[in-house]
Amino acid sequence: MSNAEKTGVLSWLGTTVKTIIDKASDEIVTSHVAWMDSEITRLKQSFNFSTAAAQRKLESSEREAVAAALYRRFIARCWKDSQLTARESELLSWLASNVGLSMAAAAAMNQQAAVEVFKATLAQAFADGQIDDKERQHLDAVAAAAGQTVASLMTVFFKQEGEQLLRSLFAGMAADGQLNRDEWKQFRQTAEWLGVSREAMLPAIRNPAKQLVEHALADARSDNEVTEREEKLINSLLDNIIDDAKFAAYVRGEIAEASAMQDLARGLLPSVACPVGVALRSGEITHWAGTAVFTKVRERASGARIDTSVGTLVITDTRAIFTAADKAFDMNHRKVLAHLPFGRMIEIRCGGKGAGGYDFGDAGVRPVAIWETAIGRANQTIVASDDKEARRRIPRDVRQRVWQKYGGRCAECNADTYLEFDHIIPVAKGGGNSDTNVQLLCRNCNLTKSDHI
Question: Are 358 and 336 in contact (CB under 8 A)?
Fold first, then answer.
């Protein structure tokens, strides 16, 4: 056996022997404590620790361990109902003196026990999302029994458990995706009563506040609408709680996108500059211009042939103009027989050139919505288009249940930003708005799914 192996074996033996000795010592202390506990029950105020220790033939070091363990046993018993009466306080004071505990040692054990009870009581009070007057009185009583205040006890453990409790309270209040003024006021008052400063409170709730914003954005993407209440909530969270410039820029960009989609849902189309070289007719208005991938499936005797072209698509008030290196054509909106959207893609069915699929890539879903609205406006079928949008719109109660089901994270990759409510089976293919047909996806996973539909 090598020297290293011998050293390892000796170390293992030493650790094992120490563990066995410590366990045996704990069992001996427990045995002494149980006996003394029964003696206190029998003798009451006549009990004398020194006499009892002599009867048990305790060494000096054993006396200290047994005294501390006995006192801890009585603390646990007195705090069992989460409160400490005056009589119980007197009992503990008598016992501390009897077993020879210093005032400092007894005070430290009393505070430790009070903190544990305080934490349990606070967690229970937070379970329903608020602390009522009865619960406040109980917490005050627990703190007073330990010679403390609620605020001073909070400072003892806030960095460990307190932050989690505040996060849980905030998350519980915002679980429905909303946070009204009264709820926020109540939360701030609770934190203030607990002695938690604003500087300590904000970092604790920053992440659930971001999740609340993501929830509101997901709702806005689903409705194609940001209500005044939602926008006020989001701006308030960004201005007062979420100190993250990058996140704020992302959120405000998404709000602008949702507002643009809301205008499209109302039939309002944007006006943009037409690319140089595209010949427009007199009075023709450009609503979108950018890159698109056109795909055409041609059925041949030898099998299907798929042609793909990358080019520029211009959507005007009367037609769509596609130009690529290998082809160029235009389609009058009134000649379109059907338009089937799939996320950032749309299939156009018509009797002439241009029938096929169009993928807008990074431009996302806005050009799809613009094209659909332009077709509806040209054909004077905006009302019919609105009815179709209503069929695609997911009711709020369904969105709420789906959000909770997935915990505010993408069902595919677990991302917690750029979240969207998605029909598992698209509406165009017969899918409905039930909980079982709706999932939460991030934008990347949603676009990837669209690529495979």
Answer: no
Say whether both 290 and 383 belong to one domain.
yes
Look at residue 236 and tell me if it is in a domain: yes
Q: Which domain holds residue 296?
A: 286-391
Residue type, 16: T
DSSP string for 245-309:
HHHHHHHHHHHHHHHHHHHHHTT-----PPPTT--PPTT--EEEEEEEEEEEEEEETTEEEEEEE
Pair 218, 92 in one domain? no
Say if residue 371 is in the same domain as residue 421: no
Q: Specify if 279 maps to a domain.
A: no
Average pLDDT over residues 24-33: 78
Chain centre to alpha carbon of residue 263: 30
Report the run of H or E that residue 119 belongs to, with start and end.
helix 103-126
Whether the Cβ atoms of residue 39 and residue 52 lie closer than 8 Å to each other? yes
Residues 312 and 336 in one domain: yes
Q: Specify whether 15 is located in the same domain as 117.
A: yes
Question: Quick one: pLDDT band at residue 12, thresholds 50, 70, 90?
Answer: very low
Structure tokens at 39: 């003696």
Please give the pLDDT value at position 3: 55
pLDDT tens digits for 227-243?
Answer: 778 888 888 888 888 88
Write the CB contacts of 415 (distance below 8 Å, at least 6 apart in sequence).
409, 442, 444, 445
What is the C-alpha to C-alpha distance for residues 52 and 32, in angstroms, rounded to an integer?
A: 10
Distance between CA atoms of residues 145 and 137, nearest Å:
12
